[in-house]
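Translate sequence into structure tokens.
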Amino acid sequence: MLAIDVQDLRKEFKVQKNREGLTGAFRDLFNREYNKVTAVKDISFQIPRGEICGYIGENGAGKSTTIKMLTGILVPTSGKVVVNGYVPFKDREKFVSRIGVVFGQRSQLWWDIGVIESFQLLRKVYRVPADEYKKRLGELVERLQLQELLNRPVRKLSLGQRMRCELAAALLHNPDIVFLDEPTIGLDIVVKSEIRDFLKEMNRKHETTVLLTTHDLQDIEALCSRVIMLDDGRIIYDGGLQDLRDTWGQGKEVVFQFASAVTLDELAGITAGINGVRWTQENELTCKVWLPRGTVSVSQVIGSVVQSFEISDMQIHETNTDDIVKEIYKSGSAVAQG
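Result follows.
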């Protein structure tokens, strides 16, 4: 069953043209002119229930506009959008009771009152029965380690503490679908890791569908098996994260730590005749070999090296997702490279 169904979704805005100078400003008062800007251009995708999907793109690509249409904040210019069985902008009251939203740079908590008071107000907004609220709150407080934060005003929380509270606030009513817009922005590595672990556990335990927008591709790698990539309002890639690596990854680098000294000539002799393979040497015990995509299997090269030399340690590094995405944006298309 689909959690999100989007067909030919489009959003256009009218943006006023501002003429130069005092005369231009005076004319704008009585005779305004507008440009039409298309932020989302006839996109289509489906997300099944229980999936964690990454929704990525550069600034201005249309991510936030899409999220606002999916959550009912904006009305589409054309196309179809159904989320959790509802048309978001039409069935607003019923729809919002089954979704959770976290915007990394905006708060749904009341700034000057204690966190627990915000939670109690949200319980009334979402009409959560008292017994369900108590049980759910207990789970979230324990898992997100909020015990010492509940009676503090939100304005006295650090960014990491506030984001943990924001997640709890979005999940108090046990939503079927959660929209996360930059949930780890500005957080340190430890807090990011804690939030990622929590989201994976929530998805596994409750089968909560998650649509995640982020500029931190480590969030995508840690949480998502699928990624939708947007550029200039259009989808340029929709598929598995591993497929993206396999298609666009430039190759792999294997770092060998040898038990005794070796030379580059000895290593080059092992892989002679394999196009594109390059050896570099850091010191007499540490060497790296670069294997271009599609030339030779990693296991073949490792096997040849192990047969000839004693290895004390070894690491395999793939082209990281960040580099792959940058390369795709440069080309403007995620069509497979030849």
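Note: The longest strand covers residues 2-17.
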